[in-house]
Write a structure and sequence with these properties.
By secondary structure, this protein is an alpha+beta fold. 19% of the residues lie in helices and 39% in strands. It has a four-stranded antiparallel β-sheet, with helices on one face. It has a three-stranded antiparallel β-sheet with strand order 5-6-7, covered by helices on one side. The protein is globular. It starts with a helix and ends in a 17-residue tail after the last helix.
Length: 113
């Protein structure tokens, strides 16, 4: 919630550490995803806000996933805690200027999936 308020105030949110060794860094130009490994050099992937096509949010009881579809067929999957899912999703929706009407409701995950 604090990150979403920081975005509304016109400032850039602090980097957010999510599961899988990913660190999300936000800027006015795009999203930078740094993946940290134990014995290898960190991998950095930059996504411009204009290249992000669709953001899917899958929330479960204590965790969730955010799937970011990128122009050109790429896809980035981020696994987060329940608290981080809503925080990261609100920041992504804010920077990509996705309106509430354009957001598709996500379906609930079931055991048969």
């Amino acid at each position: 919630l604090g990150a979403a308020m920081a975005v509304k105030a016109g400032t850039i949110p602090e980097p957010i550490k999510v599961r899988g060794g990913h660190v999300l860094k936000f800027s006015n130009h795009g999203l930078e995803v740094e993946t940290r490994y134990w014995f290898q050099k960190s991998d950095v992937r930059s996504l411009l806000w204009g290249t992000i096509g669709k953001i899917d949010v899958l929330a479960e009881c204590f965790s969730g996933s955010i799937i970011v579809s990128v122009a050109g067929g790429g896809r980035l999957t981020l696994h987060c805690s329940a608290r981080q899912v809503m925080r990261v999703a609100s920041i992504l929706y804010h920077f990509t200027n996705t309106s509430r009407a354009a957001r598709q409701p996500c379906r609930s995950a079931s055991a048969s999936d």
